[in-house]
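Morning run. Coffee first, then this:
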Amino acid sequence: MRLLLLNTHSALNSGDLAITLAEMEILSSLNPRSITITSRTPALDRPALAPWSPRVLPPLIPAPSVFVGRAATLTGCAMNLCQMGDKSALIREMRRCDLVISSGGGYFWSNRRGFPGPMFLQNYLHLYLVKLLMKPMVLFPQSLGPAFNATARRMLGSVLSSGEVTRVFVRERLSLAFLQGLLPERTMKEKVELCGDVAFCLETRPDASSLPAGPDLPAPIIAVTVRRWDFPEVRETAEKSRLQDAYLDALATACATVGRRHGGSVLVFPQSRGPGEFEDDRPVSRGFAQRLAAKAPDLPVQYVPLPDTASPFDIIRLLTQAHLVVATRFHSAILGFLAGVPAVSIAYQPKSRGIMEEMGFDELTIDISAVDANRLIEMMSRVLDDHASMAADIRDRVMGLRRQIRETTLRAVRHAVT
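And here it is:
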């Protein structure tokens, strides 16, 4: 069996790499003859995926946002468009593969009010070509939507309704509701199914981390991820900046208050280091650590500058020292759960709240545009006060989810190729 895995993101985002690694672990149990993967950073992804020896190719069209600076964007896009050998190889794999899998994740959304942007089109084009080639296709657990324009909704609905798509797994009920507005009722019943995030299936290996042991900080340790966000529901640049500053300031106030109250410390790390400036969490993470240190000079605060090559296993090892994860990057919450650590989620997209609801922790989620320091303090304190029982509960929930995701996805794959 030849498998083609489309629309994986990049090893620079440890959350997206966790999805890809888990997918490879699941698919390798089928003993496929070959696996080909698309990635936005193929040179970086090849070493990370070396145990499975997949062929890693760039996407058919570039997404400008994965590059930093105008010169790099022009050069990078031009290089992608000139890689005709790789494009021919990818189309050839589409023609001869036995099954196409659209990687799990949250990339089918669009905050543009007119025509959808390059990132959406890059992912959509792959699925559209598979549809034209009449190859069976399964979408591994996705977050779909929101889409602020009718064109993106119509394009997505057309592909998902096609006979080539045999199964669509969604990660949370919000995506289920989004699809109910796109697809006919019969299609929803026949091919759409709720399934957990594939990253929960990542088999953690204590020896897999390539980094030395983390910093020695006083307990309880609060691990934090932050990100730059553009608040797409707002049009004015000044209001976007105000909301970003309000989010970071409320989080810093909460960390300072809870950290001092419990005599603990704060560890800040960048889950995503790219690709592109918007996806690079290092500048905002360093800035947050400095903001927090200025707000609470007596509180031990450490920023961990993870390298580009940091793996999900590095982060899991780092988080085994923590007692709480405050996650804006949602997969830092999942990696925390894999380490047995409870999490509070700051949701910048509906997917974060939806997945926390599926875990039974919807009361530990707050929207990024409405972050309130007092509410965060309440949630963080609740977790730390009940840490032992929550950690035990998380281990049971992760084991159950892992079993369900693996069985459900493998059943869909086997059905698609028979």
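The chain has two domains: 2-203+400-416, 221-385. Good start to the day.
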